[in-house]
Amino acid sequence: MVTATFRFYEELNDFLAPERRGHEFSCACARAATTKHMIEALGVPHTEIELVLVNGESAGFGVLLSDGDRVAVFPKFEALDVTPLLRVREHALRVTCFVADAHLGGLARLLRMTGFDTLYDNHFRDEEIERIAAAQGRIVLTRDRELLKRRGITHGCYVHALRSAQQLREIFDRLDLARSARPFTLCLSCNAPLHGIDKTSVAPALPPAVRERYQRFSACDVCHRVFWEGSHWQRMRVMVDELLAGAEEGARAT
What is the dihedral of CA 231, 237, 240, 246, to 10 degrees? Predict the structure, then answer.
């Protein structure tokens, strides 16, 4: 029987059984077990991992484990330069876009609000999310760790926060999204691009109070919704400004 020693770092410990967090532990491995097989068997989705070291050397997910191996598993690095090492991602995504599972509708709308292409349908099944992510190069967002263990999902984030506003901040911080944000450029409802529209072309369909108070409007050509800078927009504007300001302060601090 093959027995290996494992050590998980930082937030990866959240996925482990309490008695295995924060220190090395030994574990019996299945026959011909790879690093990916054992890491996920211990509860950690492969999408959460940036680097694996086996006996001090960088290793991919397909490396077979041998008796006595020591495996160190790391999440995304922020302060440590690991570019000379082999990371477990085969390639980076050129465009940041997402597909969210059925439990993250609020987060999907907020990501669209900040300009990030985010697919969401509360009827998406796991296999459909996997297919979409692979075909379109999307990052999977979920609170289901089993979904992130699917072979076809190469980029994903387990969302720890429970409320959508905190989830948005979590994803912004983790993926450093602030520099790519384009607030209020996508439809919150259908994810299509918004464009400015002349007030006169939509005035007959507007409520009288809106027609009197507002001058700037945006429209979606897919669902035909019209948006204006009312109280809901202003609340979202405050949220976006706080989010981007916090990211700028964090960048100056580093």
Answer: -110
